[in-house]
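Archive entry. Fields below.
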Amino acid sequence: MTYQIELENINKYYGGYHALRDISLGIEPGEFVALVGPSGCGKSTLLRTIAGLEGISGGTLRIAGETVNDRAPRERDLAMVFQSYALYPHMTVRRNLTYSMRLKRRSKADMERSVEEIARITGLESLLDRYPRELSGGQRQRVAMGRAIIREPKAFLFDEPLSNLDAALRVHMRSEVRQLHNRLNATSVYVTHDQIEAMTMADRVVVMRAGVVEQMGAPLDLYDRPCNRFVAGFIGSPAMNFVDGIIREDGVSVRLDLPGEAVLRFAGARPAGETVTVGFRPEHLSVTMAATGGNILSLPVGFVERTGSTSYVLSSTTPEILLSVPERFPKEQGSVNAQIAPELVHLFSKEDGTALL
Amino acid sequence: MRGNDVKRYGLLALALLFVGIYLFPLYWMYVTALKSNSEIFAIPPTFWPRDPQWIVMDVWQRMKMDVYLRNSLIIAFGVTVIVTMTGTGCAYVLARIRNRWMDAVLFTVLMMQVLPSSLMITPIFVVFNQVGLSEYPRLSVILAQAAKVLPLYIVLCRATFLQVPKELEEAARVDGNSRVGAFLTIIVPLARNGILVTSVLIFLQSFGEYVYSRSLITQRALQPATVGLQSFMGPNSSDWAGVMTYSAIYVTPILIVFVLLQRQIVSGLTSGALK
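PREDICTED_STRUCTURE:
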């Protein structure tokens, strides 16, 4: 199996600052990989390293089987879409699209044909002779995409390309980018801080923090089986609830550090007396009438947010527990009983946050 | 509302007053150029010549101003070419690479700007003499003056380059261009305004250069107009009308250029050369 892009123990230092730590990652041809993480986690640095805009301090980077550590960006045959689009302001859309072809001294007819095709794909036909400043945000975004597509590169690199668009357009472009990826059968690396974008678009999500890959895998695997507390909290919206707890004598249930001595059963077994962090997602807590029984939390209601389709109920405990209720929750209700299935309860080590189940 | 009006007109009056003070010497130059010798020393002074006399052609021919102005142009043009050729790349590097060493370099560059010509001229004269540059006096003035104004050019151009987003260059490099190619096809065209305006400033400054020309050029036929002006000053000459006419001929083209370009110069110096 040859990877389209292969990273092997990539390290990157800025002076004494260790920006990327031992990153290994193989991206298969045609795969859509999203790099996601909080700002400053190194995801953009990693992308720029692949593009060749940043040097590598250690490790090997291969593109289509060839080591490219010391190659200039232009020798790597990758296309990049920037957050700011980076359209050349002094060139028309047409000249922006053909910039790379003109560098390669392709024939005029050749360029005309390509421009027409790209304009058709991206819907820019009527805008070819405009300047970037005369375009709306969405149109600029399309030009930036078109400029990448026209290259027919070995892989596409996206650096938060949708974050400058308004919310509605962002959702629309999300599916459009993904469809484009499918149609071109391209290999794409997509950097974003928005986990929804990563979850909806990518075949594989790489969660990064502080220059380290925390976990990588299919979007739903990350959601179902986060390997540590950070990934658990980062993937999923609203974020997972975390409560401290102690494993009970039976080894299959945990006493939560909440008023009322709440006890939750979990799927699996842990040594009795172990102190852990218990995690469960707001949407996995379902409101129930029963006050007693299996895996029920009785919580005093502190605050209710209603969005129409979903109500967010925040408990008045410390730490606060958030429930995501798919119905209209009465604002004046003082307490709520929430039930959760044992297999949806996550346990994390108190020391290093790794998943225990 | 009324208070606002008072404030506005008050400020306007103040502005006019200051403009008047700044422009008075210029006005006095033009007026004196038109006065007769006796009227120049009349007390009280006249603010408009009673009997205007037009001695432009006379001064032009008597002083051989065409030679002087040609020398001034050669020097100013030479300085501008050398400075733009060598300074643009330097300004760009200083704009892009940011670390402690570059700060030190920038500081050193600025320090060179501080040294006055009159201080620098002696060592320059000695060195130029030793390497035989005194055979080419205009070239030596061009070199000396280029060294003098280069820091100013670098600092002003750097400010322009700082406004060009880095991503544009990176996009060009990923798109298949080299660093130099990206600089020439993307960055320089975008910074064109700033570069042009700064070059005009350098040109005008070199057009009025005096100290180096005075010291390095002895032959009259090679001297620029600034030095030529001095030849009016004899032990017993007091041709003030001639001096002022000469000055007016010399300054007027500069003024015209400035007025024509003032909007670009101001915007180029402050900000917004892009977007």
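CURATOR_NOTE: Residues 240 and 256 of chain A are 15 Å apart (CA to CA).
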